[in-house]
Every structure is written in C-alpha cells, then in structure tokens.
Amino acid sequence: MSGQASSQDKTERATPKRLRDARKRGEIARSRELVSFVVVAGGLLTLLLLSGTIANGAATWMQRALSPELPLVERPQDMARHFGALIGAGFAVALPLLGVGFLAGIVGPILLGGWNVSAEALKPDFKRVNPLSGLGRIFSSQSLVELGKALLKAGALGAIAVLYIATRLDEIMALGREPLAPAMAHAMRIALGCLGWMCGGLLLIALIDAPYQLWSHAKKLRMTRQEVRQEHKEAEGSPEVKGRQRQLQQQISRRRMMEAVPGADVVVVNPTHYAVALKYDAGKMRAPRVVAKGVDLLALSIRELARQHRIPIVDAPPLARALYRNANVDDEIPANLYAAVAQVLTYIYQLRDWRRRPEAAGPRPNVPSIGDVPGGEADP
Fold first, then answer.
1. 198 lies in a domain?
2. Is there a single domain that holds both residue 120 and residue 175?
3. Which portions of the sequence form the region Disordered (predicted)?
4. Which CATH number do you get for residue 309?
5. Domain of 302?
6. How is 75-129 classified by DSSP, letter by letter?
7. pTM of the full predicted structure?
8. Do residues 290 and 207 share a domain?
9. 238 in a structural domain
C-alpha cells in the first residue's frame, strides 16, 4: 500500500536536474522495437540497392560450395583450405548487410533517446549480481511488459511471413526447376517482398512502442511535490546556481539597457572610460533619467550605438564620471548635478533647432564646457 501511495504521490513532471541526473546514470528512453525496425529497414534498403550484386555473389558461392573440384575430393587435406575460402567468400557477400546492420544498430537507439555514454552505467553494481535483485527484475512489471511485447512481435512477424509464403508457395516450389543464377535472383525478389511486409509490421509495432517508452520513462522519473520543493531549495543554495542566476540577470539587464540607448537624448562621455545615456521628458519626468551607463568596452558599445542612431555625444569627463558613480540605471540624476546636466540639455535643444533650419543656417551651437562637478574627480 505504501508503494502504491508513493507512486500516486508522484504527480509532478521531472525537473531538468532530475532528467540530467538520469542521463548521467544511463537512464534514458529506448525502444527495442524501433531499433529492430531500423536494422531491418537498413537491411531491406541494402538488398534493394545491391540485390543484383548480392544475388550473383550468393549464386557463385553456392556453386563453389555445392560443386567442389575433383582434386579436393581426392585430397581431403585440402578441404580445410577450401572451406576457409568458402567462409571468406560468404563473409564478403554478406559484408554489406553486416555493415549496414552494425550502423543501424548504432543509429537506432539515438533516434529516440539521443547519444548518451554513461560512465556510471559501466561501474560495478552488486545489485546486478544479487540473485534476489535479479529475481525482482525478472518478475517486475517492466519485464512482463517486455515479454508480452516480444511474444506479440514474434507472433505478428511469424503470421506475416507465413501469409506471404503461402501466397508465393507455387513460386517457391518452382525455384528448384530453374537454373542456379535465375533461381537466386528469383529467390532474392521473394525474400525482398517478405522482408518488406515484415518491415511494415515492425514499423507499426515501433510506432506504438516508441511513444509508450517515452511515456513510461517520464512516468518513472516523476517526482512528488516535496521532492520538487527540496530540489529547488538545494538549487537556490548552490553557489553555481546563484552565479548563473546573477550572470543571467546581468545579461538581461545589459540587453534592456542597450535597447534604451536609441531613445536617449544625449550620451555624456569620458572618451577613454565612461559613457552615460540620459533622457528627459519634461511632461513626464521631474528630472533627467539615466537610461544606460557603462565603462570601458560597455561604454564603447554605448557610444557606437549612439552614433548609429544619431544620438548626440557630449565629451564632459567630470560629468560623465559623476553620473556613472552617483546614479543607477532608470534613476533620476542627483540634484547636485542638475545645473551641469541642464547645460548639456540646453546645448542638445539648440543643436536640434539648428539642424531643423534650412541648410543648417547660422553658426553651429558651441559644446558647453563643463567644469568640475561633485563626484567627478578623475580616477586615481
């Protein structure tokens, strides 16, 4: 009862951490039926592409096997060499099928669960050799399901093969009356047809089994609400997670800040280090507001973005340093910097008016000379 209640309590989907831990242990969704289909389909495709070559090779091999040379009969000591050559020739005929089957056996599992090599799965585990644990695995519900699937698959494929052979029985019986090479080609066509029908049956089974395996794997990894809360609690206390969270927050904040630069009224800079973007809307703001700021490479990015959007850039090192040190992004500027910023904004408004005049008539407004301001001392 407790195990049933525990299973019923696991109503939450597995967290990304639980999924990662499961992959490390080698616990991923796999479908044997999908692998079987890929292997058989690969073999069928190989036979379709190389049917003539394989049929001719098989005919030659059978002719050599069934018609040994007379000296071999007279010299039994050469029979071993003859059989060795036959084995090598048979392997050469079957090599394309063996190679494709090997590759399909690798690709098949990857199609569902992806590529995964787990070192933990290779570690010795006493439970694997413990007879009691082995009996538990044999009589587990999963083993019974796999046994049922194997029996159903064998029955279905056997029925398909029997039905196909029954429809071609006359052709199969007539093969013995044909010359060897045509008989091999004819037999190859019959085998391809039978293999095609069986491949279709395997495809149907795989289409049922693959979703079931995904569902079963997800169900196996389900968590209770308490497990989810405990995992979140442990993750929040992890220095690595906190570091990633801070890094992500910084990236989001920086991206949002850079998106605000094109809407700024002016960028105040110290050409070598600082850049601060300001915006002022007299109808909505009590004072100018900092929309972006940065030093070194970030300051360079702010300046480049301002140039791209034709935002005026004012070179005022003391004011740039003071704004950077004393005002955060999205905050209003300090009151002790009102006068200096007012000079800059006055220049910006005059510059806009000058640009609107036909052919920029009249002299260009002079850039204000901003002297020392509170907090604008040079870096030591």
1. yes
2. yes
3. 1-23, 228-248, 359-380
4. 3.40.1690.10
5. 259-360
6. -GGGHHHHHHHHHHHHHHHHHHHHHHHHHHHHHHHHHHH-----SGGGS--HHHH
7. 0.50
8. no
9. no
Strands 313-315 and 289-295: unpaired
Two tokens, residue 122: 């290779």
Q: Which of 189, 211, 229 is the last residue of a domain?
A: 229
Query: Residue 244 domain-assigned?
Result: no
Does residue 94 register a pLDDT over 70? yes
CA atoms within 13 A on the CB side of 250: 8
Neighbouring C-beta atoms of residue 33, cutoff 10 Å: 22
- List CB contacts of 329: < 8 A, sequence separation 6 or more: 253, 257, 290, 291, 292, 293
The Cβ-side half-sphere exposure at 259, using a 13 Å CA radius, reads 6
Alpha helices (H) along 168-238: 169-174, 180-220, 225-236
Task: Write the burial class of residue 372 (CB in 10 Å: 0-12 exposed, 13-18 middle, 19+ buried).
Answer: exposed
Split at pLDDT 50, 70, 90, the class of 143 is confident
